[in-house]
């Protein structure tokens, strides 16, 4: 019994001063950030790397040497509470590690928010254990400065865990957006969230975080400049352009930024009216006519003597030509899922999209939604990206 108690105490002491679990989670998060770099600020992997290096250099070697000392000092014949030499070493160790833990193990600087719910779920999967470990380390090390006891350690550890768990049930984990003009970003983000909630929309449908970051960087002060922002098409310009310009102008005035506002700042640039275009070629028209009769892709393919993929390419082209909408072909849930991905992505290739979204969507469904987003000016792919180029 004495041996079992001794071993259990050593196990908890090791847990108190162990930082390897934190490093393992950080390494997993770093791999995920690199694999999905389009969704992350470019300096996030570097910041995670820096944390891993600091823990490996400043915490792990010291904690490993200290654990060897603990094993030597913690005699099986002496009660932990009455072992004065060991208690003194534990208190000094807590005082040494505590400021380093506060500085190095904080996570707000490496957790980002995206417009992609699938990516956010994965980020939160790393965020929750990192935040929990941080909370536990802080609380238990603060207590250890006054002396270590098993009962006190377990009580404080459990309180820290329950406090974290209770928080995640009622609050969305706090995730920061890193940008060079943070206050304007926060203003735009708060406006976006309030506007979306009032209209009952998903946040990204008002404006994406990528567009917000570009606005904060380029500071457009006219409709013409705002139109050049990636993700700001004719619909967004008309619906939200004046409000966005007013926020930017107010910001540069308050911050004394030298940028002149043109007299015609609120004048929407002339854009050619969007008219439904007739699909090119009789083949597309035949597919369109059969589809409007209510026939399925398989039925149209059989009637026309084509494979189904050819008919699906016709439908995608008809969406580009504004003869059809994605909602005419697939469910709104799938449209929302795919839209979330493409409005956040830096490229519009189907392979990476399929890897993230998995079997929930097909390549043709990705093409339908991307073509509609391009048509509406909600995404602006670079030359050579996926889309109509496949036809």
What share of residues is helical? 55-70%
How many DSSP-defined strands? 0
**Domain module count:** 3
* Strand and helix order: HHHHHHHHHHHHHHHHH
Number of helices: 17
Percent strand: under 5%
Contiguous low-pLDDT stretches (5 residues minimum) are 164-181, 383-391
- Tell me the major beta sheet: none
Distance between the ends: 76 Å
The chain-level mean pLDDT equals 83
The best one-word shape is: elongated
Gyration radius over CA: 28 Å
Quickly give the structural class: mainly alpha
Written account of the structure:
With 391 residues, this protein is mostly helical. The protein has three domains: 2-170, no CATH class; 182-254, DNA polymerase, domain 1, CATH 1.10.150; 282-390, Arc Repressor Mutant, subunit A. The protein has 17 helices and no strands. Helix 2 (20-35) runs antiparallel to helix 3. The longest helix has 30 residues, at 44-73. The radius of gyration is 28 Å and the shape is elongated. The model is unreliable at 164-181 and 383-391 (pLDDT under 50).
């Amino acid at each position: 019994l004495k041996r079992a108690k001794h071993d259990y105490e050593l196990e908890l002491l090791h847990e108190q001063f162990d930082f390897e679990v934190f490093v393992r989670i950080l390494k997993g998060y770093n791999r995920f950030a690199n694999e999905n770099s389009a969704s992350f600020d470019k300096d996030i992997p570097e910041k995670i790397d820096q944390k891993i290096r600091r823990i490996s250099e400043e915490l792990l070697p010291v904690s490993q040497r200290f654990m060897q000392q603990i094993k030597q000092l913690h005699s099986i014949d002496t009660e932990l509470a009455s072992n004065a030499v060991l208690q003194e070493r534990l208190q000094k160790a807590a005082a040494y590690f505590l400021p380093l833990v506060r500085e190095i193990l904080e996570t707000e600087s490496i957790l980002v928010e995206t417009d992609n719910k699938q990516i956010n779920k994965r980020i939160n999967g790393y965020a929750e254990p990192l935040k929990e470990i941080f909370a536990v380390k802080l609380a238990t090390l603060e207590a250890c400065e006054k002396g270590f006891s098993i009962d006190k350690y377990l009580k404080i550890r459990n309180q820290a865990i329950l406090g974290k768990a209770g928080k995640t049930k009622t609050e969305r984990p706090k995730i920061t957006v890193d940008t060079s003009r943070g206050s304007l970003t926060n203003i735009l983000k708060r406006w976006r969230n309030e506007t979306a909630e009032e209209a009952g929309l998903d946040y990204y449908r008002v404006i994406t975080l990528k567009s917000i970051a570009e606005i904060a960087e380029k500071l457009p002060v006219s409709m013409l400049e705002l139109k050049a922002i990636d993700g700001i098409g004719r619909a967004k310009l008309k619906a939200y352009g004046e409000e966005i310009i007013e926020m930017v102008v107010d910001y540069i005035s308050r911050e004394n930024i030298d940028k002149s506002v043109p007299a015609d700042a609120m004048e929407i640039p002339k854009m050619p009216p969007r008219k439904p275009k007739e699909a090119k070629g009789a083949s597309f028209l035949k597919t369109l006519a059969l589809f409007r009769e209510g026939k399925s892709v398989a039925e149209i393919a059989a009637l026309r003597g084509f494979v189904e993929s050819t008919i699906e390419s016709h439908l995608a082209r008809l969406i580009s030509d504004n003869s059809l909408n994605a909602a005419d072909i697939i469910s709104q849930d799938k449209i929302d899922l795919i839209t979330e991905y493409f409005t956040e992505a830096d490229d519009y290739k189907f392979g990476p999209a399929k890897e993230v979204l998995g079997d929930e969507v097909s390549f043709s469904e990705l093409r339908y939604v991307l073509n509609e987003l391009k048509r509406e000016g909600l995404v602006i792919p670079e030359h050579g990206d996926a889309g109509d180029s496949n036809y």
